[in-house]
Task: structure prediction
Amino acid sequence: MKMASTTRSPVAAAALSGSGFAAVPERLSDRLAARLIEQIERGALRPGDRLPTELQLAESHGVSRSVVREAVHRVKARGLLVARQGSGVYVSQPAAHQPLAFDPQVLESMTAVVQVVELRRVLEGEMAALAAERATRSQVAGLRRALKAIDTANDAGRDGLDEDMGLHRAIGAATGNPQFTRLLAFLEQYLREAMRVTKGNEARRADFMRQVREEHAALVEAIAARDPQAARQAAIAHLINGEWRLEEGGVIPRRRGAGRRAAKPPSPSRKGASR
Result:
């Protein structure tokens, strides 16, 4: 199956235009690297298997040999392939302990932006619910300070990216589980440029900015009210609506249908005073 040719720039190079952001397709090397990784992970290519030659891969996927070289290099960097002098490239034996890693170059695509949003939806929904159960009084106060910091940054004309990440870090800390903090710190190195595009899209419309502010406020208030269900729903709604705003702004193609947003989360119930 051949790939359609494209040479457009990655997410980090997405720019504003009069009609909004242009949807940014994946580069051919991104797509080929992702395909090879998927074949290895599902067992179509097994440890010890010899990879087809550079020419064979180029012909079978309808790309240039330079695209194949770049894609294979990225998969090698993941430790999934090994070159044997004079013999070829082979699928590596799996390591006993696999480190968690994403290829940052493969992630520079709009497809990856959506995939990371889905990952965050699972992670941050449960993280918010745990924070609602466990946050101390001082941590709730810290969440409100983080919320105010986002408003201050926006009022000053900044994108508020660091402040937004700070809010989510504070929620992770409020779970009382340091593994959430570590995982968020790991993900941030891959999320930053994608979130910058998201922030730029939201900054173009006052209604988007208002929605984000209301969603953040609902999330913080649900945690403060000790309502895990409302906190979970507020976190998930925020991420679903973030994807909807990307669709509305023309950054990504529509997937769920025009105009569909998450239902507004219920108001949190006051389950107890802040600890």
The radius of gyration is 22 Å.
